[in-house]
Amino acid sequence: MQPPISTLTRKTLLFPLALVIFEFCVYITNDLIQPAMIVITREYGVDATWNASAMSAFLFGGVILQWLFGPLSDRVGRRKVLLSGVAFFIVSCLATLWASDIHRFLALRVLQGVALSFIGAVGHAVIQEAFEEKTAVQISALMANVAMIAPLVGPVAGAVFVDYLPWRWAFVMIAAVSCVSWLGLFRYMPETVKPSKEKLPIKQIAYDFWHLLSNRHFMQTTVSIPFMSIPLVSWIALAPTIVISDFHYSSLAYGLMQVPIFGFLILSNIVLAHRAKVWRLGSSVHYGYVFFLLGWLLIVLGGAGVQPVMMLVLGICCFAFGEGIAMSVLYRFAMTASDRPYGVTSSVIGMLHMLGYALGVEVFKHAYFAWGVMGFALCSTVCLLIYMGLSRGAVAHAMMLRLDGEGDAAVTASH
């Protein structure tokens, strides 16, 4: 195995590029299709409450097999598992051509969501293993910029797409681009673990999972991330209903409203990538609190009836910026909070995140249908309070461990 990479060059970036193309394709299956959900539900003869269920099903797909793919890649190698996952995603996208009712469509959304497991449990694990710590944070931020092009262009492209082409053909185009990613991964993806011929030890997987789930600092860091992201994820799921159905904006206007939100998310990742090696690791999480609090204030104003849609968009913009400068750092802290293998650790993180997002969308959906924008604001308040409480403790513990490690290294060097 090669030592961790500390310098970014054109060659070392080819694998992250191929991976992020796959990540882009997975995300855009959600972002491109969200504007079409109103058309899809009408075609299938169901009501608007099913709009957000497509995203919940997609996120649930990211949960059901996370427990397997990380440990499996620890055993048989990262390359085999990730390449198989990309191929599975391509087939599940093409199968949408034969979805004849809402139930089959949602079943395929679950299968497409399984691809989230390959990204988190395998792809991101390789990034953490192949690159030195601050370089891994930098790579993660750069990858997030590319991946966030999906929610940036997806809603606008989807709004235009459904006006001119059948919505099913969006999945055909996504499958075609995913084939490019598969070829890039096949050519450039490194193998960061030594494959073993031993059978996959289910008892060992259960032990590793229990070890992680009972690790207070790991759980504190890992669970903080969904609470940070749920308001943005819920906005993505509910925006077609809020903007188009309830406030009667056009599909194009809905798409354009997403541009500043994900523009702020991209900008924040650019800031983090640029400053990652200058800022003390963890400080960006504290900087993010300012933007979360400002966003919360704007969302509450919207809930109180002051320009509801505008305030929601502006508030989510602030949430997006705060999330962008905090996400990669918290993810790194979660990955290094335990001595378990990265494949298992990534699996548990991914499962908890996807489960949190799926449940969060459902809670936000019911709150919005019960109390309107105020329901969205109340849920955002709860998420923010929990996130700030968890993340402060997570950062403090992670920095204490790193200071202790530097002290141990200094003592060893002196001898």
UniProtKB/TrEMBL annotation:
Entry protein name: Multidrug transporter MdfA
Record note on quaternary structure: Monomer.
Gene: mdfA
Keyword line: Antibiotic resistance, Cell inner membrane, Cell membrane, Membrane, Transmembrane, Transmembrane helix, Transport
Organism: Ephemeroptericola cinctiostellae
Domain Major facilitator superfamily (MFS) profile: 11-395
GO cellular component assignments: plasma membrane
Native organism taxonomy: Bacteria, Pseudomonadati, Pseudomonadota, Betaproteobacteria, Burkholderiales
GO MF assignments: sodium:proton antiporter activity
Predominant subcellular localization, coarse grouping: membrane
